[in-house]
Amino acid sequence: MALVASKLAPTQASYREVIESGLGHSRRIARGEILRIVDLEGNQAVDTLFYNADDASERYSATDTIVAQQNLYLTTGTRLLSSEGNVLLTIVADTCGRHDTLGGACAAESNQVRYALDKRHMHSCRDSFLLELALHRPHMSKRDLTSNINFFMNVPVTPEGALRFADGISAAGRYVELRAEMDVLVLISNCPQLNNPCNAYDPTPIELLLFSAGVA
Ligand SMILES: [Zn+2]
Q1: How many Å lie between the centroid of ligand 1 and the Cα of residue 7?
Q2: What share of the chain in percent tops pLDDT 70?
Q3: How far is the CA of 148 from the centre of ligand 1 (A)?
């Protein structure tokens, strides 16, 4: 897998913020702006949803994206397609090399199925998404939570067609960069998962940087 570094320096960013694990975030990104997500300490999962900023009924579609690029994994050059077949964003740099869009976001239900019944109460990505919507996007609801991307997560598909939550291939400081091809809304859950060995049972902070259109 080819790793592609960005030409943009962090000092050129118009916005920077560290997001602690377990927290959500949402933000409007204008067409042409570039969002960088940095895996600060390595092997963190960043559960992410994208929408048309002006119409949340048009949202990221994992199936359309996979079919269009004939690849199950996301990396530099991947165009993230919407449920209407439009390009929401393009991955323009990636120093990790592979991102998952099949594994879904952790939830109370999946915590019980994957780990143990008594994990039901533990905070999940779905909780962070719902909290973020309730606080900042009240026009949206759980009906708007569909297939998502797990940046920095390694979920290989076996020859039998099963999913495996494998050890991560990311590392401290690796990042992915996405250029918005239309005005989009991004909804992020920096995964709070404490039961999965893929993050060494230790979710960690990420950093978001935003670069204005034309800064490159
Ligand atoms: Zn999660």
Answers
A1: 30
A2: 100
A3: 11
